[in-house]
Amino acid sequence: MKRRDFLAGLGAGGYSLYVFADGSIAAGDDKPRQLASVERRDFTTIAPAGGDRTAAPHEPNMTQVEIECDVFIAGGGMSGVLSAVAAARHGAKVVLVQDRSRLGGNASSEVKMHIVGANHHKSRPGWREGGLLEEFRLDDAANNPQRCWELWDLLLYSKCVSEPNLTLLVDTVCFGVEKKGNKITAAYARCDKTEHIYKVKARTYVDSTGDGRLGLEAGAEARYGRESRSEHGESLAPVTPDKLTMGSSILFTSRKYDHPMPFTPPAWARKVDKKQLAKRGIKTWEYGYWWIEWGGELNTIRDNERIRFELLGIVMGVWDYIKNSGNHPEAANWAMDWVGMIPGKRESRRFMGDHILTQQDLMGLNGDFEDAVAIGGWPMDDHPPGGFDAVDLPPCVQVKTPVFNIPYRSLYSRNVENLMLGGRVISATHAAFTSTRVMATCAVVGQAVGTAAALCAKHECLPRDIYSDKSKLAELQQTLLRDDQSIVGRKNDDGADLARKATATASGETEDGKPANVLNGFVRDVPGEYVNRWTTEMTGDGAWLELAWKTPQKIGEVQLCFDSGFQRELTLTSSDASNKSIIRAPQPETVRDYELVAIDAAGKETSLAKVAGNHQRLVRHKFPAVEAAKLRLKITATNGDKYARVFEVRCYA
Fold first, then answer.
1. Domain-by-domain residue ranges, the chain?
2. Which runs of E-coded beta strand occur in 468-590?
3. Quick check: 390 and 461 in contact, CB under 8 A?
4. What's this model's pTM, rounded to 2 decimal places?
5. What is the mean pLDDT of residues 317-321?
6. From the CB of residue 177, how many other CB atoms can be counted at a distance below 10 Å?
7. Nearest 10 degrees: CA dihedral of 370, 371, 373, 378?
8. Would you say 284 and 347 are in contact if contact means Cβ atoms under 8 Å apart?
9. What are the pLDDT digits (tens) for 452-465?
10. Which architecture characterizes domain 54-229+349-490 according to CATH?
């Protein structure tokens, strides 16, 4: 059944989704309601009306649905979600399949791992990632002060279903492909809950599955385990190669009650003693322990059920020790209120691209990459394959890196021509992978991949062509920068940005916060080196920033980049210690209330946009084009800070 027929069937009695301007959603029957700013969405996951179906080959009780799109993405973790949203926002028709009912992967409520990245918690302030990840984090902080993981799940879901170009298929597993030569021509995915098999034909395919299932089926060149020290000259690699990996973890949460809460472990719980915890300290227990890790000496894919059993046994054993050993009497009133049932996996397959990231690349020893598209900066953080059972070894060894760029050539397969790589399957050695595996890095890689996939659709080209054609590579980088993706050493060089021809003045300034900074091409401070924003103290009348042109310009879009407090960590976490410095509200530095005004050559003012209650860093305003000799940003309130701060202003025709 073709997608257009499938959608037509839904119109006769299917299921509708209403997406509101504020991002909220409501479901209903097939009778549209007359509501303002509502868009009707049809879901291809619901069976067609009237019983019309085509049996899937070899699966007579499954209905086969054929879908055609520009980009097919397997895997709905942070990398896959950001890939899908980025590609859809840039005009590509996207299908995203996720094997769980919830998006986010290890960051979902099913695992509850907080997202970390280049700022390394609080040890590298100022290097929080930008782009879509920052948008999501700011929405979560403003709307989820109670730190509810299920609301984070819902936010990711809402971001996907709110995109008109994005078809989301949850509880759907990618299990096969068709190929012609070195290209994928179709991907297969199945949803047993709705008895559907999807055959998806796309231009570009993205593997963000973590375990590399799509790439495996496509025959992409892959590696598993650790390279030898001599292969790439990496001092952190073992002398001889092996198939060992880092293990998986299961987290738990607990809370304190006003009376004693006894605990009796199940019969299959591990017996844990003080010796086993000698290198694994217990200080608090509201958020479990990442070092409850196991399975790196097995195959983390095929032995996942065994690994789950052992991890749950260790979790129960550690909690039994806390509650019943007598060494932690202060735990008497504490009780578990959640235990993960899905191992949070660190490592499995990696695919090989045109460039393999190495330890030296991450340390900056090989220079910069001309095709840089994303940043990383978490330490090279390796864990012993024995995990919890390696009692004589520390649970991790971290080698700090500078903030580094990730090259585009590591984000597509070198032998499957239309396969791109997202998340932890990107092209890297094990040593480099120990850094690039963390979710904030995976997320910004995902945004780069989705943006590139959209360009492949726009130019009708293959992923490798984006690199080989330097004009396309420049377009990719400039598009990412316009979307607030951070790339070390790269700045706005967009010839279409009319603001670059303007001069800037303001109601006031600080010594390092000159108005001209909003036009210097950079959208973040570089900690310890320089400040790029305009800053002035708010007065009773607020503050203003003005751009002026020698020749009036026709303007139809203005993009603003505000300050959102990159110097702090911002993530959803159940760790009370990590959460102490996190502001779970609109960030105080961010401009809240403002107005954009165009002033023509005769001095006539036209209000272009008036906003109250903003909490986002990157905002865009589109309007019928006006001729402006000046553009004034009037700021009347921040979210609490006494200074008005703006990183960049862009203007487009």
1. 54-229+349-490, 248-345, 498-652
2. 503-506, 534-537, 543-562
3. no
4. 0.93
5. 98
6. 23
7. -70
8. no
9. 999 999 999 999 99
10. 3-Layer(bba) Sandwich (3.50)
